[in-house]
Amino acid sequence: MSEAAQSHRDAAAALAALLDEIPDAVPSVPPPAEDDVVEAEIVDDDSPAQAPGGRLPVPVEPAAKELILRGRVALAETVHNPDDWVDVETEEELRSAIPENTLAAMHWALGAARWYCQERKGFAVREYMPMTVATVRNWIKDHWTMTRADGQLRGRRGRPYSPNTVKTRIYLMAKIWKLKGYVSPVGHPKVQLQLRAYRRKYEQAGFKPDEAYPLSHAESVALGRACQEFTVGGVRNRAAFRLQYDTGMRASEMLGMRIEDITWSVPDWAPPGYRGPLNATIRIRRSKTDQDAVGREVGVEYVPYEIDEQTEQPRLDADGKPVPHPDVDMDPAVLLARWVEVLRERGITEGRVWRNATGVGEPLQFKVVDGEVVDFDRPVLGGEILDAAWTYEQYEAALKWFAKKAGIDVDPVTGEKRRITSHANRAGHITTSLDGGEPVEKVALRTGHSPTGSIHGYYRNKRRFGTANTGAQIRRRVVRRRVT
User: Fold this and answer.
1) Rounded distance, CA 279 to CA 229, Å?
2) N or C end of the chain: smaller count of CB under 10 Å?
């Protein structure tokens, strides 16, 4: 098990222990006697004044009365049902349905909320589940001044926390509150306005969001060509970098691929008896937005020729021959097939596609058999494939290393350092596709987004490319301008 996976499991176990300490919104106690029924007074969190509507008569259990008076649970949820309980096995099944990464993130958010309420506000555990609207608003605002032990602000590069970090924490806490049976205060209009005010304050202070730089097609090709051609690690890196850029997959989706999830097919334009490179169809079993594992498929089309945008046929030269695509050596379908071939040469025909590998040095030009040197027509790949999975951290480290080697990690005009992460491929795919005129619905279908959802956050509208050429549909539109 990788160090990251073990860390996530440890965080999930810690979260389970913390959740056990938190009381449910409506305790499973016997139904109240008639003389225990009280009238609950609903009070606005942000004002001592009585909320519109005055007193509302409602049957309330004594155990839930305090929660009602503090505005912490909806009146509709306080009607006690003696049969409304679950056994331990049912609760364990529910928790097993939450991905470990999500549990780890929830643990991170709960730890931050616990620290704030206990250290900054002096609340006990049972008093901050959930927070009131006023406390949530103060928590959002106080992220601006939170510091480490050395006095530095807790955000990246000595800044305050970014608006995205604050929003993520708040919404993770909303998920926890709902799981415990409370009504989350996060949906309150004042909380939403407080989040907006924090973002505006961040922008007015001159801070920019830490967005990944969106690679262009030319930069993605340069990244692939920077990898070694005749080493195991180089073949793997080329295939992975170009595949993620061409499909727009999340890094976690790509790294979770299995050999049996890939199916190969002959291109539609291929003549009878064609024995060249094939198209690939990849089934993504589960993703961040598909926790029920419905799955989706993405295609990787082999595009060897320049395609005329009007006729959808290969462009012909003066001699009537198809014009080869200028970047056919970096075609992701070809590179993926080559990596799968390397796996099969080593007896790996099933299981994970992306594995840890050695071989970042010089390729082997020969090997020794029974004490004699045997030459090969094609150089033997240097390095070995390990059984361990290629982790997210290792993938991103390789991406940054080869981006630096390719010279695409710095803006050539301003000299500004670019933020290269695994999102650089995904953001580049979306930005270049939309700039190239593809409908957002088609792009979202490939990337697993909602057409009206977060896909627009990946579109870097300040980044305009002279060549829109990514994905099978975009690559079919010929590169008209070459970067020199």
Assistant:
1) 22
2) C
Q: Which residue shows structure tokens 């992460």? A: 421
Asked whether residue 133 falls in the same domain as residue 225, the answer is: no
Of 165, 180, 210, the one marking the end of a domain is 210
What is the pTM (predicted TM-score) of this model? 0.66
- Mean pLDDT calculated for residue range 39-47: 38
Same domain? For 171 and 269 the reply is no
> What's the chain's Rg over C-alpha atoms?
28
Greater confidence (338 vs 358) lies with 338
Residue 401: inside a domain: yes
Indicate the residue type of 327.
D
Q: Confidence class of residue 166 from pLDDT cuts 50, 70 and 90? A: very high
Beta bridge partners of 389: 355
Range of the domain at 432: 217-407+420-475
What's the Cα-to-Cα distance from 310 to each of 433, 436, 468, 478, rounded to whole Å?
Answer: 18, 15, 16, 11
Tell whether the model's pLDDT for residue 448 goes beyond 90.
Answer: no
CA distance 192 to 472: 40
Would you say residue 356 lies in a domain? yes
pLDDT band at residue 63 under the 50/70/90 scheme: very low
**Which CATH number covers residue 377?**
1.10.443.10
Q: Specify the DSSP element, H or E, that contains 368.
A: strand 364-369
- Whether the pLDDT of residue 50 is over 50: the answer is no
415 within some domain: no
Pairwise CA distance, residues 103 & 92, whole Å: 13
Same domain, 453 and 359: yes
Asked if the model's pLDDT at residue 390 lies above 50, the reply is yes
